[in-house]
């Protein structure tokens, strides 16, 4: 209710002789009512009131004290109703007169009528306040004077179908103009919609039509703009529309309209086009790393029922598709791991910055990475191992120790997604061996840090052999200290300093033994070491691996040209290994040998001799053998060793399970195997291993039920 006029009342005492009371009361009541009726009429006609407001208020109180409150209430209601009826006759009886007005003029006229009525009702109530607060308040079935005024206005004016339709049409027209970008009189709409709300006809007369029109408008707009605009522009448009509608609610619409109105806009501009928006634009936003639009996309889709679930599905599919291209394109193998790391960083940033670290999206991303990275078995594991090797190898100046640690942490995240971790282990062990044996490791701390990460991720069993390799290197240092002391005590000390790394065969990769022709002095020294070592560790067997060795040459001279075939015969070195070694000595930066004819490659028939003109600014230089890229045969060999190891693990798991369970069906056995094995395996491969164990009498089929097996003790 609008603010009422509060009158300050001074109570007056009226003394009347007892015998004159009835006559005086009757005359007083009639005269007082006439005075009050005149005042009400003046208020309704917007003319000046002849009487003092305090006097009128006192008159109402006196009438109520004479027990005429019911009559006074009825008379007041009748006067107000007569006035309202006169108003509708004056303004709206002949509707043809108002049809000449445009809708805006009609709304202004309607608003003046309403404002006048409110002002008049407030004034009348202030005069009859005592009646309102006593008699009316004590009778719960009677409406207050203010409510009576609303009821009369609603009954005789707003409930008129023509008036109501014209009013609502005008309001909707103004809103439509504002939605199209024009400026309107918001205070006028606020007043008229407040009128409808006060009269309790807002929902039925206005809101239903308003929401229907809104639904129609945005349905058409959504269809049109989805065709005309790209997704980023469309998303900003939707956000702007939602902001505009919320502003309308704050400015002139009733608060009860907020939820259905916003839901309508979200449904027509978003809900009806979720799939189309994501199909048309999600990949564009993600490819372009459009953080602002991705944040907006998530915010908008979070408002629509099922929006985030739909976005999550498309997000997962995008990651699988994009990542699948990285992994399943052999021509991109060289950059696969770096591309995977960059892609993971990018998706992490989107999940954290744009998707508010939503756990569902983070889990979907992990699931998608695990899916696509294992689409191509074994290769990602192999390349990740080689990528780690490139970062841990000496000469890598790309990163500081802190940066290297961060890179290793990121690699471990990718590593977690790989199913065939045994493939990674095989290639990692092979590369680690090279780094340790030829002194190519960039940092022992970094090596041990990586080992610690692998142990934490896969357990002690996974890293036991790798840790054994480090242990061998440390033990070898201690043994060489003892060997030097042993040599010094010999009667014929050698002028050759021999350093030996003693490797436990089970820890290190398998190396093909190669027989080479060493100088007699070297052979003699090897025998000395053999006696020394076996004297301390009886029962052990030593197998020399000269291909993994290095030597330090202090001086040399040879003026004769020697054919490569002659060198091969004299040394016994395998052809490929020999050519790489000669290429390092004659074709690299430090050319201590001359090659004839000149060239970058070593061919059959080439001749070599010592370069007497060789000079270098350093007193001690290191010539590394030219590294030949891993051949297909070496890759296949490593992979085959992994598969062979897997067969052994499958066989061991089958025997272990059958020994414990004694009798088991095929399906249950396969299920148990999947639970125990830590690498991917096909059902057909399991079946082959089971058949092999049956052939070797570790188990047997049930004679009556072929799909059931029995353990053979």
Can you give a write-up of this model?
This protein has 713 residues and is mainly α. The protein is 66% helix and 3% strand. The protein contains 28 helices and six strands. It has helices at residues 21-44, 53-65, 69-91, 95-99, 103-127, 129-138, 145-158, 161-179, 186-198, 202-228, 231-251, 258-269, 274-287, 291-301, 307-327, 336-354, 359-373, 379-392, 401-416, 421-437, 444-458, 460-488, 520-536, 564-571, 575-586, 632-661, 666-676, 683-695; strands at residues 562-563, 593-596, 607-610, 663-665, 699-701, 708-711. The strands form two sheets. A three-stranded antiparallel sheet has the order 1-3-2. Strands 4-6-5 form a three-stranded antiparallel sheet. Helix 18 runs antiparallel to helix 19 (401-416). The model is unreliable at 1-25 (pLDDT under 50).
Task: Specify Rg, calculated over alpha carbons.
Answer: 49 Å
Low-confidence stretches: 1-25
Average of the residue pLDDT scores: 85
Number of helices: 28
Largest pleated sheet? 3 strands, antiparallel
Q: Got a strand count? A: 6
From the N-terminal CA to the C-terminal CA, the straight-line distance is: 96 Å
Give me the side-by-side strand order of the main sheet.
1-3-2
Shape: elongated
**Secondary structural class:** mainly alpha
User: Which strand-content bin applies to the residues?
Assistant: under 5%
**Oligomeric state of the chains present here:** single chain
Q: Fraction of residues in helices?
A: 55-70%
Pfam families: Cullin, Cullin_AB, Cullin_Nedd8
Protein name: Cullin 4A
GO molecular function: ubiquitin protein ligase binding
GO biological process, one term: rhythmic process
């Amino acid at each position: 209710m609008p603010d009422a006029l509060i009158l300050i009342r001074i109570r007056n005492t009226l003394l009347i002789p007892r015998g004159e009371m009835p006559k005086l009361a009757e005359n007083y009541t009639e005269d007082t009512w006439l005075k009050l009726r005149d005042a009400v009429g003046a208020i309704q006609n917007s003319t000046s009131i002849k009487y003092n407001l305090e006097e009128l208020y006192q008159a109402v109180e006196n009438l109520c004290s004479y027990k005429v409150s019911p009559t006074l209430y009825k008379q007041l209601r009748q006067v107000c109703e007569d006035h309202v009826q006169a108003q509708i006759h004056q303004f709206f009886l002949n509707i043809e007169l108002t049809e000449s007005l445009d809708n805006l003029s009609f709304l202004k006229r309607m608003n003046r009528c309403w404002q006048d009525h409110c002002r008049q009702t407030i004034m009348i109530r202030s005069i009859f306040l005592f009646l309102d607060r006593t008699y009316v308040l004590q009778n719960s079935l009677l409406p207050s004077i203010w409510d009576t005024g609303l009821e009369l206005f609603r009954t005789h004016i707003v409930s008129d179908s023509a008036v109501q339709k014209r009013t609502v049409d005008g309001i909707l027209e103004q809103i439509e103009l504002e939605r199209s970008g024009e400026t309107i009189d918001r205070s006028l709409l606020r007043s008229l919609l407040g009128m409808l709300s006060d009269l309790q006809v807002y929902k039925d007369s206005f809101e239903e039509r308003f929401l229907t029109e809104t639904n129609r408008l945005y349905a058409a707009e959504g269809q049109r703009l989805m065709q005309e605009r790209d997704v980023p522009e469309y998303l900003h448009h939707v956000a702007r529309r939602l902001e505009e509608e919320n502003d309308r609610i704050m400015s002139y619409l009733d608060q009860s309209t907020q939820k259905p109105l916003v839901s309508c806009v979200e449904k027509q501009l978003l809900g009806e086009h979720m799939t189309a928006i994501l199909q048309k634009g999600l990949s564009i936003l993600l490819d372009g790393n459009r953080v602002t639009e991705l944040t907006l996309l998530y915010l908008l889709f979070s408002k629509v029922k099922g929006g985030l679930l739909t976005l999550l599905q498309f997000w997962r599919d995008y990651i699988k598709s994009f990542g699948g291209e990285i992994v399943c394109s052999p021509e991109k193998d060289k950059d696969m791991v770096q591309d995977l790391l960059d892609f993971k960083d990018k998706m992490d940033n989107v999940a954290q910055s744009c998707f508010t670290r939503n756990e569902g999206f983070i889990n979907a991303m992990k699931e998608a990475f695990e899916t696509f990275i294992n689409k191509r078995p074994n290769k990602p594991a192999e390349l990740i191992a080689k990528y780690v090797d490139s970062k841990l190898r000496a000469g890598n100046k790309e990163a500081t120790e802190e940066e290297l640690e961060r890179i290793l942490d990121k690699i471990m995240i990718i590593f977690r997604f790989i199913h065939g971790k045994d493939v990674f282990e095989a290639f990692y062990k092979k590369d680690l061996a090279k780094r340790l044996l030829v002194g190519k490791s960039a940092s022992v701390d970094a090596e041990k840090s990586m080992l610690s990460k692998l142990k934490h991720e896969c357990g002690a069993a996974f890293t036991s052999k790798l840790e054994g390799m480090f242990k061998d290197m440390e033990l070898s240092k201690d043994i060489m200290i003892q060997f030097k002391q042993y040599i010094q005590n010999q009667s014929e000390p050698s002028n050759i300093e021999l350093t030996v790394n003693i490797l436990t065969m089970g820890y290190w990769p398998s190396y093909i033994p190669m027989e080479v022709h060493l100088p007699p002095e070297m052979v003699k020294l090897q025998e000395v070491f053999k006696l020394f070592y076996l004297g301390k560790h009886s029962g052990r067997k030593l197998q020399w691996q000269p291909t993994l060795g290095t030597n330090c040459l202090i001086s040399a001279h040879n003026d004769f040209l020697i054919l490569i075939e002659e060198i091969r015969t004299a040394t016994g070195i395998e052809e490929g290994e020999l050519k790489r070694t000669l290429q390092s000595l004659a074709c690299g930066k430090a050319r201590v040998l001359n090659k004839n004819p000149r060239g970058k490659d070593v061919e059959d028939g080439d001749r070599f001799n010592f370069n007497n003109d060789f000079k270098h600014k350093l007193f001690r230089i290191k010539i590394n053998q030219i590294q030949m890229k891993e051949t297909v045969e070496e890759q296949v060999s490593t992979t085959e060793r992994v598969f062979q190891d897997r067969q052994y693990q499958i066989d061991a798991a089958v025997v272990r399970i059958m020994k414990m369970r004694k009798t088991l069906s095929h399906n249950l056995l396969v299920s148990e195997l999947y639970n125990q094995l830590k690498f991917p395996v096909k059902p057909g491969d399991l079946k082959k291993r089971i058949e092999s164990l049956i052939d070797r009498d570790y188990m047997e089929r049930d004679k009556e039920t072929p799909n059931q097996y029995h353990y053979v003790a």
